[in-house]
Every structure is written in C-alpha cells, then in structure tokens.
Amino acid sequence: MEYSYKPDGSRYDRMKYRRCGRSGLLLPELSFGLWQNFGTEKTKEERRELILTAVDLGITHFDLANNYGFPAVGAAEENFGEILREDLKDFRDELIISTKAGYEMWPGPYGNWGSRKYLMASIDQSLRRMGLEYVDIFYHHRPDPETPLEETMEALSDIVRQGKALYVGISNYREGEARKAAAILRELHTPCLVDQIRYNLLERWPEDGLLEALEENGAGCVCFSPLAQGALTGKYLTKIPEDSRAARKGTTVAERYIKEENREKIQRLQRFAGERGQSLAQLALMWVLRRREVTSVLIGASRPEQIGENVKILSQKPLDGGEQEEIDRILASC
After folding, report:
1. How far apart are the C-alpha atoms of 115 and 77, rounded to whole Å?
2. To the nearest 10°, the Cα dihedral for 133, 60, 303, 123?
C-alpha cells in the first residue's frame, strides 16, 4: 500500500525537549515505547495511526527492544520498520530510534544476557528487522551477573565504533551497577548516554541514590512504566477488564501493582488529580517529570487519543512544592 504521509508542520511547537545528561542530544519529555501493542495485538493500520499521531505531536523518540512483540519476539521491530519504510523514510534524521538486548531472544547459550557474542548478534538482527543502517541509542537491557561488566561495556563501545549506534545506554541498572558501567564506558571514550529505569508513583527506589549517580556521571534518565503499566490510570480499581494489559497471559501488572495496599493510594491520587483538573495518568506523568534528572518518560498507547491526552500535560500547571508534599503524604499514609 502506498502512503503519502506529511507530518504536522507545527509538531515541534507542541513538544518540550530536555538535554540527555551532559550530551548534545535532546529528547522529547514524552517518548513513545513499543513494548506493548506492536506485536500481533493491533492491525497494521492501527499501529501506523499510533506512530504517526506521536510524530504529529512532536514525539521524536521511539523505543524498542529485540524481544518486544511477545509472544512474537522481534515483531515490534519488524512492524516499526515497515512504518519507517512506508511513511517515515524521508524523516529518519528527525527521529531518535533506540533498541536493546539483554533478555532471552533465541534458544541456546548465546541468545540471552550480556556476552559480546549475544550483543553483537543482537544489534545486527535488530538493524535487519527495522531496515536501518544504525540506531541512535543501543542499550544493554539488564545487568548480567555472570558476564564481566567490562566485556559487556566493551561490546557496546565497539558497536558505536562500528557505526551501528550513535550512543549507548544501560537499562534496569541500579546505582552501584550504573556507576561501574559509566566508569568503564568513560575509560573507553564512549560515554554512557542514559539509564532506562522503571520509575513511578508506586516505585520510588531510583530516588535512593540512582538519580543522583546518573547526574554525577553526566547520564540522562528515561523512565518506563510511569503509569505502572496502567495501574495509575485508575482502570483497575474495581476489576481487571478482559481486554486490558493486566489480563494478558504473561503480564506482571497484577502481582506488581494491583494490590490492596495500593488501591487506597490510587483512589486518593485520583481525587487529587481531579481537584487539579487532570486525569490520574496526567498527574502520574507530570510527577515523574518533576525531577530534573529525568530526561524523558516513555508512554505507550492502545488508541491515538491517549497520546494526545498525555501530551496535554506540557501545557498544564506544574506541581508546586505544596502539591508534591501532599502527594508524598498520600503515598506514605496508606
């Protein structure tokens, strides 16, 4: 099918951008993640509408991983690559495309974790699936307790030197691990651009040293699951809808977030958001972005309208000190 997509001419006026650590790279405050809905869940037209809506709203950063699309691992990269070829090939230089490797991708001893063998094969496979010569950011997706960190970081550095990625980052690395990784990459003259971490109102562990460590090392921070995989939209307060993410096989939403101890917190946060004229989701995104160390938050969507609702936070009143203290009291009291 032939498309003649032309992006909205005012798209960059609709978005705000932040510098990623001490690098020269700017990322949109809201980036689009393809963890969900880009495997077999949606039709080609539905996927296309999501991506192009994001572009029209000034979102320039699209985040993938080699295993996204579960259970059809690799499908997210293939489906995104198709949209790139058919709609966005003339705009490649206006996009930041990231992918990752670190979780199980193929059977046998070489399809998982952080060995040089796995990472080198993974970047080549990802580039083929997306039809790209390079990605902008390549991440190691999780720490490997068995492989020497030096081996993993040297592989990342070599991927940059081979021209297969412009920048490298780490994901799911805690404070001590992040400090060590950043130090090794610095010695290799390939700075660690960013750590991609899980951070939201219900999971605040990055505040216990990690955010400070990233800032000290000149690295940015991209946050995934800012809405706690949908729990911070309020849609799971009464029951889990059959067509929701939490109802899908293999998901961890229910065990991680949909607990009785969180229900009252979410209800009170929802009331607080309403008093501000916001949805709970908008409040949750704004709360993550309150931290200066945070470069961008990753949003997902099953409908284009959700992307537009999320982007509205950029024109809403920021949280003031008193409101942040009230949120802290809500989170601490339940």
Report:
1. 22
2. 30
**Cα separation, 142 vs 101, whole angstroms:** 8
Task: Find, among 204, 226, 221, the residue nearest to 330 by Cα.
Answer: 204
Per DSSP bridges, beta strands 17-19 and 26-28 are antiparallel
Angstrom CA distances, 20 to 121, 150, 219, stand at: 27, 24, 7
User: Would you list the DSSP string of 224-242?
Assistant: E-TTGGGGGGTTTSS---T
The amino acid at 278: Q
Q: Are 230 and 236 in contact (CB under 8 A)?
A: yes
Residue 281, number of CB atoms within 10 A of its CB:
22
Residue 43 and residue 35 in contact, taking contact as beta carbons nearer than 8 Å: no
C-alpha dihedral sign at 39, 45, 50, 54:
positive
301 vs 226: CA distance, rounded Å: 13
pLDDT tens, position by position, for the chain (334 residues)? 556 899 999 999 999 999 999 999 999 999 999 999 999 999 999 999 999 999 999 999 999 999 999 999 999 999 999 999 999 999 999 999 999 999 999 999 999 999 999 999 999 999 999 999 999 999 999 999 999 999 999 999 999 999 999 999 999 999 999 999 999 999 999 999 999 999 999 999 999 999 999 999 999 999 999 999 999 999 888 766 555 555 555 566 666 777 878 899 999 999 999 999 999 999 999 999 999 999 999 999 999 999 999 999 999 999 999 999 999 999 998 6
Contact 41, 50 (CB under 8 A): no
Between the CA of residue 189 and those of 158, 173, 220, what are the distances in Å? 11, 20, 17
Nearest to 63 by CA among 307, 296, 257: 296
Q: Tell whether omega for the bond before 143 is within 30 degrees of 0, i.e. cis.
A: no
Q: Check if the beta carbon of residue 330 is closer than 8 Å to that of residue 268.
A: yes
The pair of structure tokens assigned to 189 is 């003259």
For residue 74, the Cα-to-chain-centroid distance in whole angstroms is: 17
Both tokens of 34, joined, read 């393809």
Overall pTM surpassing 0.85 (yes/no): yes
